[in-house]
Amino acid sequence: MAAPLPSPDMPPALVARHGSCSLLTPDGEVLTLAAEEAVRELRAWPAPLVVHAPLTARRLGLPPLPQPTPWLDLLELFTFVLPGRTIPPTVRGLAQALDLDDARIGAAEADLLPELADILLDRAAALRMTPAGEDMAALAIRMDRAGWAWGGSVLAALGAAHPLPPEALQPGDAIRVWRRLPRWEDTAPRPAPANHPVSAADARRRLGEMLGPQAESRAGQADFAGAASAAFAPRLVRGDPHMVLAEAGTGTGKTLGYVAPASLWAERNGGAVWISTYTRHLQRQIEGELSRLYPDPAVRRRHVVLRKGRENYLCLLNMEEAVNMAGSRGGPSGAIIGLSLVARWAGATADGDLLGGDLPGWFGDLFGRGLLAGIADRRGECIHGACPHYQRCFVEHSIRRAREADLVIANHALVMAQAAWHAMDGESGADEDNIPTRYVFDEGHHVMDAADSAFSTELSGLEAAELRRWLLGAEGARSRARGLKRRLDDLVVGQPRLEAPLEAVLQAAHALPPPGWSARLADALHPVLEPVPQAGEDEAMPALAGPVPAAPVLADATLPNPCEWMLHLLARQVLARSRANEPGHTGHRGGAIECDLHPLSDALPAAAAALARALDRLAVALRTLVERLLERLEDDTGDLDSATRERIEAAVRTLRRRALSRVEGWVAMLRAIGGPEDGPGGMAERGTPQHIDFIRLDRREGQRPGEQDVGLHRHWLDPTIPFAAVLAAPAHGILTTSATLRDENGRGDGDEAERAWEAAEARTGASHLPSPALRAAVASPFDYRRQSRAFIVNDVAHDDIGALAGAYRTLFQAAGGGGLGLFTAISRLRAVHQRLSRPLEDAGIPLYAQHVDGMDNATLVDIFRSEANSCLLGTDAMRDGVDVPGRSLRLVVFERVPWPRPDILHRERRTHLSRGQPGEYDDRIARLRLRQAFGRLIRSSSDRGVFVLLDRRAPSRLLSAFPEGVAVRRAGLGEVARDMESFLRGHENGEDGFPPSPSFTS
Ligand code: SF4
User: Which residue in 238, 526, 887, 888 has the fewest CB atoms around it within 10 Å?
Assistant: First the structure.
């Protein structure tokens, strides 16, 4: 057992950067070494102290570390001592979380690490002899046995002696956290809400109360709150909700602006307002702002609930299985250490949210994302009331809390899925969530994209194989997949009316692709597809190699499975028709290739008909099973206890949502092949199609190198049609808001402004509702003319990666860091990162990158925010919704104009939704994306920032994307760097306002 740090055998400490590192030797000497030298030194020493072991190993050029990690990772110690807290996974982030001041943190070199370890061990020691400390001791003994590098030091700090007294929690029980969590209690259903209105004056008053007398008065925010209140008026006509479109320029304070009327409406009417945003990260951001309304965390927890899909939460049953499986192996086990830390967190978490909640986003980096995937409810195998942990279940508790809350913060995907399920289940269906009558769609410019995903249909190998696994279980594979029979056993056994349809379902499920389909598809397509290594990737990505040879001969007899046969035919058609076969063409969406479904290749109609018949048998069997389960609910009213009733209701719900709706959608799509809507014929004959059908081939998460997924896809041409029908029309009021609802080309009055509003209405579904939406726009309070500059660099060749990387380096160095680099393609981001990381590190500017650093986006943004001189590279997700006020973000560099991706979906939409102006349709998308990107720059009235576009081809007609007053100038790279440096330095020196040079044009 090791003693707490420091000790005579002080371990070395290491902070790795790109290519170099700071190393504290066991003798206390701090060295700056090249990565290779540090690796050599480390071989002779005990395991080092590090922060983020996997990232450190990657930066040293080492292979992935074994599990359990032999190194002393301070992040593991942090999650053990302070569970339920998130921090940026850096030395500085850790030091700040432990209350060290900036002077002590200094350059955050390796010599700080022993002090951080001591602080954490001291905090553990402070819990000695307390109930929490005793629980920690029991868990630490279990972790020590599993080979935890910190085990000895933590046990010494806690003064834990083994064996523990018999009355104490024992090591084997400490990890079984599900036995100790509190139980939730059910409450009576909430009555339907009343319909009292909220006036604009009331909303303004509530806003004032939230902000307090000291807050600066923002007229725009009060106007916004007043306009938003119109969405909370009583509905006058069924199917005709009050819809408000409210654009709020950056800095308006729109969150509190809509929370004011929303919270008042909820209080007056006893109902919930659902606030929907685009990403998990933004959900947390909104939740954070609600502390202005409910400063007391306990009160806030009663009134506000954050809801996500079930797959985000810890499933205690899956955790129990994972603990049993990992524990049965004995010996050292990284899984046991990871699960023990999950157990620590589960006792401290607010809501059990594994992804983006109070479990740090980097936890999955340390123990593998598979560990988290295995303990979430990702496979849809929840057994609800039959689960021994049901009354402690985080998912169920979160659903129940949401039923009582005033404000539910959700995301677009969940809200749309929920509305679609409600439409499917009907009024009689037992629903998990009370369907709200009032919605706020924040980040409303994403409504169309979210609806596009929510209301599309995909029949792909992975989707179909996953359904087979859900119905039939693992079928001999090494997996814990339970299958429908095992999940429904207690409800069905001894009930012949249920056993027969269940058996029919299981029989019919054999039409779905059997295990091994993906490898067989890869074999059949070989040598059309050759694995080709891509820069910066561990695994080889299959890419097209040369022209397509004759299609492989695949006889129906060799592939009796109708779904697998269909997949082969789809793959064959896409390979034959895609332009990606041509040398130098890389396809779309990260290497995916696609082609139109029509005209159909010869064998497809027969294969589609055969598969439709087979899937229809499955749909009929599923429907019968659902009906019989519902009959049992009706017939056995007196015999069923409430737990069994709830269980049957949950089984019906899951069967409908997870299986039946999907299979019915596939059958409809297959039957439409060759049908009147989508049959062969020119565009003129068909007119405007309702759907877009195409085939896509790509590699998906979880597939092995060389394997690919192929699928038939059906999207709505205008996905806001189903959005309006399924979600908007049944609602009573909807507020849709964003900083970029309208394309700013419509700035000003007259026809252009009207067209901009009409386009916004089309993108948000407002144009499909009976009454017109109320329009409101509040300008940003920022003085962009004074606070920002924008440049277009006109001497960097767009197709030269070396020149692009050189431009990024020049600009990031001139700004002294604080730069966000945005890319439209992952491959270019990686190529630039490869050339950029070392020189920037040498200049003292740490560089982080999405798609490279193996960290989730929220973690990367946290690091970027906490390190004022770091730089970050990212793609779309960083362009939208990153909120980094202050010096940490003072420069945004966009590599090229963010034109829409030229895929089939876009081709059809620009043709049919552009009112005959496809070019203008493209421009509008690019302008909105540029506006979003620019919006990252200035987040408060004291921010100063520079936006640079490295694309000399950028047409001037796109420049209206920038806010009014922003001076945009085309210049060479050197000049831009100089002007930018001078502008940023001028403001750092306190010069207020930097007059534009005469050559500036706005
Ligand atoms: S009720 Fe479902 S989600 Fe909850 S712990 Fe049990 S199986 Fe997991």
Answer: 238
Per-residue pLDDT tens digits for 771-794:
999 999 999 999 999 999 999 999
Query: In terms of pLDDT, which residue wins out, 728 or 530?
Result: 728
Both tokens of 666, joined, read 């596939």
Measured CA to CA, the distance from residue 1000 to residue 1002 in angstroms comes to 7
Tell me how crowded residue 305 is: count the other CB atoms within 10 A of its CB: 24
Neighbouring C-alpha atoms within 13 Å toward the C-beta of 286: 30
Tell how far the Cα of 480 is from the centroid of ligand 1, in angstroms: 15
| Partner residues linked to 696 by β-bridges | 594, 711
Q: Ligand 1: which residues within 6 Å by Cβ? A: 315-317, 377, 382-384, 387, 389-390, 393, 395-396
What global pTM score does this model have?
0.89
Structure tokens at 204: 């303004």
How many angstroms is it from 421 CA to the middle of ligand 1? 20
Residues 452-477 have pLDDT tens digits of: 999 999 999 999 999 999 999 988 76
The amino acid at 894: F
> Element (H or E) spanning 733, and its range?
strand 733-738
Q: How far apart are CA 265 and CA 282, in angstroms?
A: 23
- Complete edge-to-edge strand list for the sheet that includes strand 13-16: 30-34, 20-24, 13-16, 49-50, 72-73
Strand partners, 242: 733
φ, ψ for residue 32, nearest 5 deg: -110, 120
Helix/strand/coil for 525: helix
Q: Whose CA is nearest to atom 2 of ligand 1?
A: 382
Distance from Cα 676 to the centre of ligand 1, integer Å: 45
Q: Spell out a b/e string for 202-231, using b for 16 or more CB atoms within 10 Å of the CB, else e.
A: bbbebbbebbeeeeeebebbbbbbbbbbbb
SS3 981: helix
